[in-house]
Amino acid sequence: xxxxxDVVIAGAGPAGAQCARDLAQRDYEVLVLETESxxxxxxxxxxxxxxTFPSMMGSxxxxxxxxxxxxxxxxxxSPTDHFEQTQPxxxxxxxxxxRFLVRDGREDGATYRFDSRVSKPITRDDxxxxxxxxxxxxxxxxxxxxxxxxxxxxxxxxGVSDLERRNQAIGIEWEMEGVDVSHPDYADLTDAMMxxxxxxxxxxxxxxxxxxxxxxxxxxxxxxxxxxxxxxxDDVTIDDFLQNWLDDDPRFDDAERLEGKQxxxxxxxxxxxxxxxxxxxxxxxxxxxxxxxxxxxxDKCMQSGRxxxxxxxxxxxxxxxxxxxxxxIYADLWHRxxxxxxxxxxxxxxxLYYAPNERYDRFMRDLHRLDTDTLSAxxxxxxxxxxxxxxxxxxxxxxxxxxxxxxxxxxxxxxxLPSF
Length: 420
Ligand SMILES: Cc1cc2nc3c(=O)[nH]c(=O)nc-3n(C[C@H](O)[C@H](O)[C@H](O)COP(=O)(O)OP(=O)(O)OC[C@H]3O[C@@H](n4cnc5c(N)ncnc54)[C@H](O)[C@@H]3O)c2cc1C
Known about the structure:
Blueprint: E1 4-10, H1 14-25, E2 30-33, E3 51-52, H2 54-59, E4 67-77, E5 82-92, H3 94-107, E6 111-113, E7 118-124, E8 127-133, E9 137-146, H4 153-157, E10 168-177, E11 192-196, E12 205-213, E13 216-224, H5 238-248, E14 256-268, E15 276-277, E16 280-282, H6 298-318, H7 324-327, H8 329-338, H9 342-354, H10 357-369, H11 374-379, H12 383-389, H13 395-404, H14 408-415
Parallel strand pairs: 1-2, 1-9, 2-6, 4-11, 9-16
Antiparallel strand pairs: 3-5, 4-5, 7-8, 8-9, 10-13, 10-14, 11-12, 12-13, 15-16
Helix pairs in contact: 1-3, 1-6, 6-8
Bound molecules: flavin-adenine dinucleotide.
């Protein structure tokens, strides 16, 4: 078994597996190390609701057979109102999707080693030259990529990523049957992806119903684990919040959880730190990429995997140089293509998590009143669109956000907002 490759990737999630697909297509010797065993893959990491949009499916050649249901619209609910927008989408079977990415990469020549838990980078004169896995096993490469999601053992060790617990959003969902997706008192959720903003269900977070066909749906919720809403004395678990919603909302009166179909996981909502260093890049949820409204991580992660593959190609074939300077092209691509306007989008995310319930109802009224493109534009970080959704009453919320987030990014953003 060779212990030297062009590129070694830790983690076979959407980010790592997509990066491996792109590199294998360009004939690079690429190895992916995945901690889970192949028979059960993905088990622990089968965490995602996996709602996505045609742009992702088309850009990355994702086949129809990993789709559970094609959807026609997205619905936003507040405690007493809702807003529906026509928006074609797809709810994927996340496990099938992950297995497809692995299979497809292998067909192009990528090597996968399962049961391989990566623990540390191997460095020489500050350059990353390989990784240690399963205790004392070693493998060497010209470029190493951390794609392990929030675990990020390599990025943390190298000081490239600084994921903070107070910015960690945790989520849980169940696939359910017997869900009433067209209840007369609520929005019609037939072939829709719905997000509900309502602190009575989940303080400091949001809940969702993604229709997966017939009377089945993925039903879940998430929240940011920080002191604003959840103190260490708080003994209500995320499972309790979900159970309470299932008990109280009439759409779930006859609903049953599908055996074994529970998904849970986390992601960070914070500005990215460094993204690369000599011979090394961090992709996917290893560095936070913010998508405020739809929690879209998959598309962002796939795009970051692709940006890393483009950078590796440039460094290995273009300039034959993996210095920190050349690898920083990845950061340029990330900020331009993967998560543009990161600061503005981050602000929008925080406003959505922390605004009070009454503000959510006003948000719905604004969406009914404004141009239909406002929501998509705001989600894409358009400052003008976000401005159209803000009111004087949001000033104190913005002020709190700025004082709690004293990063350069946030301060810079704050200085752009005095006219509200
Ligand atoms: C509850 C929930 C719902 C979500 N819903 C959506 C949604 O509807 N739409 C959407 O677009 N996004 C959604 N997301 C986000 C999306 O799932 C993530 O952004 C995406 O999966 C991240 O991909 P990744 O490749 O960066 O990391 P991951 O998917 O976390 O993959 C990391 C891989 O690395 C492996 N690994 C971990 N540690 C090690 C190690 N030490 N050594 C080797 N391998 C390791 C893991 O087993 C895993 O296979 C959701 C997330 C959660 C938690």
